[in-house]
Amino acid sequence: MNPFAEIHPALILLVGALFVPLFRGVWRSAWTILLPVLALAAVSALPSPGEGAQWTGWTLRVLPWVNEPLTFLRVDGLSKAFAYIFTINAIAAFVFAFYVKESGQHVAALVYIGAALGAVFAGDLVSLYVFWEVMAVASTFVILARRTEKAKGSAYRYVLIHLLGGLFFLAGLAITVAQTGSIAFDGFDFGTEQNAGTWLILLGFLVNAAAPPFSAWLSDAYPEASVTGGLILSAYTTKTAVYALLRGYEGWEPLIWVGCIMSIYGIIYALLENDMRRILAYSIINQVGFMVCAAGIGGPIAISGATAHAFCHIIYKSLLWMSAGAVLYRVGKSKCTDLGGLYKTMPWTLTFGTIGALAISAVPLTSGFTSKTIILHAAEQEHLFWPWLILEAASAGVFLHAGIKFPYFVFFNQDRGLRPKEAPPSMLLAMGALSFLCLYLGIHPQPLYDILPYHVDYNAWTVPHVIAQTQLLMLSALVFFLFLPMLKRTATISLDTDWFYRKGGDAFYWLADKSLNAINAAASRFFLGKVVDGVTNFFESGLPRLACLFMTPIWKLMGHDTAEIEEERHALFRRAKIGAFPVSITAFCAVILLGLLTAYYYAAGK
Amino acid sequence: MQGRDLKKENDWFDRPASRRLLWRLLYGACTVSVLLELVLIATHQRHGHFGKTSPDGWWFFYALLGFIACALMILAAKGLGAWLKRPEDYYAETEETTLPEDIDESLR
Fold it and tell me: Is the residue at B42 inside a domain?
């Protein structure tokens, strides 16, 4: 009996995270590495139900309004493949982060990764939603862990956008459950299940997949996270969204075009960027575009291709974030205009970073070549010429912005007199391991193909394919160096869709300030100035004035002349104002009032 | 790095001779990859995936695609840059005065 049988892998990380603060020093770092190792063991011990079949466990019957239980552990090819790479990447990330002394960051990261595992194993919409939101909150703390003002600002914007995405998801979930009476999450049919509910859920997924216009959170927040935070974030949120799209929205045609837009958008912005980690952030959007497109294409080849690409992408993207992280750790700078010439003292970081850069560009012998090309193959099979052409062009563009631009401007370009030490051993170890995987899966992809959701009979290693890919990439490289003067870095940022809420937020604040505060000031002037004064005035001198008005005709009838009336009025006004009347007058008035009341009583009584 | 003999430092990529060599290698690799296609054409392995008149069956299609697509993307980025680029203080964020805690201690 396997001791790990049917242990929920997410639980290991979520519970293990609670114990992190109990450890100190290297023991804490060792503990954070041990947890994903155990989670990987738990994933591999889960049953493999075979193609098209599912195995479910950890069910809980708690929802009174549906007939189905919550399913926390649904195992099939798709969820298992994502769980494998999520845990493998976590091991590498925590080996890389061995030097980190602060524990809050580790707790947030472990909860975040645990929730991502929970999301891919979630067997229904409700439990998926729960893990989805836990991921959003935990990842916000990963960003905050850098403790800079910029990180605080972007974490604030990050969580707002993700809560918005979560609300789309929740609204869609409510509508879907109300319509179908089921919380099942098995794949919505494009032909028959298009309605407000499924579209809202799709929108929620696309927010997390960083599809424009909901993409700016990624390039805004990830580069503000810490050295290790950035690389942990780069793997999970977007890829969980990719998983959800592959599971739920296979064959939804609009996704083909969303993916194409993402792949080009990521390249253009990465070409404009100056910050090395922001270049990598935009290239995530570019790469996820390929996977979103594959979800839209649908069918076994596309789904397996997207899974393989997600698997390899997580590895080489982490590797790239690690090499950028190592540079940032040693130099303290991340802008291309401040970096350059680092090949002299950080040769290993350069080597590993370049392997990642070649892998993301799908150079033959690297993992990108054996995974991304399956998606292109799927587009060919479905005869989708324009999407295929756009993705091929985007493949060439990847080599420009990530494959060459990133290593060139960081490690070569201009020597700026920086002579940092080589990265610490734990970082080199993690980078070396991932570099090995990039090359291994490029040369011998069969172990990866074996865990894909559907059997793929695909061979990237054909002579025409290798020659075509080499041509495409070599000519892209030529363009890069021929156009180098046009690519000269400037100390600038580029406006993205976050402009709308960053400047829009300022504008809203200004508008609220000017309009509401103006109403407030006017109200204050009116009520505190005019009304209070008026009321005080009325009770002070209004009633005496009324008494004078009432008495004036009486005095006239009594035959007083104008001067006498004026004198009487003056006297009455003064007396009434201080409330000092002779007793006789007061008593006389009281008698009249009582008389009037008595008369009224009898009149009303009749 | 202090105490390191600068003469021993690896500056291969900064030498004009190396740069010339790298340029030649780049042109050479481009030429070889394009010429290899002739082998495919000669052995009838060159065909498109989208029917008979499929553009990807054209000779040197991938070389042209790589060149044109990348040139267009750089020009597009350059053009959009004129519109989208802003100074770094555009959002008026407070600049950090100290290096964050995740940076190497020796720099702080």
Answer: yes
Based on the domain organization, do A194 and A168 belong to the same domain? yes
CA atoms of A54 and A452, how far apart (whole Å)? 14
In-domain check, residue B94: no
Q: Report the domain count for chain B.
A: 1
Contact residues, chain A, for B73 at CB < 8 Å: 264, 267-268, 271, 393, 397, 400
What pLDDT does B4 receive?
52
Q: By C-alpha distance, which of A357, A354, A377 is closest to A449?
A: A377
Size of interface A-B (CB pairs under 8 A): 187
Are A464 and A546 members of one domain? no
8-state DSSP, A299: S
Q: Hey, which residues does A59 pair with through a beta bridge?
A: A71
For residues A262 and A234, state if they share a domain: no
Residue B72 lies in a domain: yes
- Interchain pair A146, B50: CB under 8 A: no
Residues A578, A484 share a domain: no
CB contact under 8 A, A332 and B4: no
Task: Measure CB to CB from residue A492 to each of B66, B77, B87 and give the nearest one.
Answer: B87
Residue B106 lies in a domain: no
Question: Searching chain A, which residue's CA lies closest to the CA of residue B103?
Answer: A329
- Are A507 and A530 within one domain? yes
Q: Do residue B107 and residue A332 have CB atoms under 8 angstroms apart?
A: yes
Domain closes at, from A185, A217, A249: A249
Give the residue-averaged pLDDT of B2-14. Answer: 67
Question: By C-alpha distance, which of A359, A339, A445, A342 is closest to A399?
Answer: A359
CA atoms of A330 and B22, how far apart (whole Å): 28
Looking at chain A, which residue has its C-alpha nearest residue B97? A148
**Domain boundary, last residue among A496, A530, A550:** A496
Quote the pLDDT of residue A605: 76
Domain encompassing residue A118: 1-249
Q: Name every chain B residue with its beta carbon within 8 A of the beta carbon of A337.
A: none
Closest CB to B33 among A151, A397, A467: A467
- The confidence score (pLDDT) of residue B99 equals 83
Query: What are φ and ψ of residue A73, in 5° steps?
Result: -135, 95
In chain A, the number of structural domains is: 3
Contact B62 A469 (CB under 8 A): yes
CA–CA distances in Å: residue B13 to residues A225, A343, A523, B88:
32, 9, 72, 31
Q: Which residues of chain A are under the pLDDT cut of 70?
A: 1-5, 606
Q: What is the pLDDT of residues B34-74, one digit of tens each?
A: 999 998 888 888 888 887 778 888 888 999 999 999 999 99
pLDDT number for residue B53: 78
Q: How many CB atoms lie within 10 A of CB A310?
A: 27
A236 closest CA partner among A113, A129, A75, A109: A113
Burial of B15-43, coded b for 16+ CB within 10 Å and e otherwise, reads eeeeeeeeeeebeebbeebbebbeebeee
pLDDT for the residue numbered B95: 72
Residues of B in contact with A468 (CB under 8 A): 61-62
Shortest CA distance from B54: residue in chain A: A385
Judge whether A388 is closer than 8 Å to chain B, CB to CB: yes
What's residue A328's pLDDT?
A: 94
In this prediction, residue A338 carries a pLDDT of: 92
Under an 8 A CB cutoff, do A228 and B36 touch? no
- Asked if residue A556 and residue A440 are part of one domain, the reply reads no
Sign of the torsion formed by the C-alpha atoms of B45, B46, B48 and B53 = negative
What pLDDT score was predicted for residue A99? 84
Is residue A268 located within the same domain as residue A161? no
Q: Which residues of B touch A479 (CB under 8 A)?
A: 66-67, 70-71, 74
The model's pLDDT over A257-304, given as tens digits with 9 standing for 90+, comes to: 999 999 999 999 999 999 999 999 999 999 999 999 999 999 999 999
For residues A220 and A274, state if they share a domain.
no
User: Is this complex scored with an ipTM above 0.85?
Assistant: yes
Write the pLDDT tens digit of every residue in A353-384.
999 999 999 999 999 999 999 999 999 999 99
**Structural domain that includes position B53:** 6-88
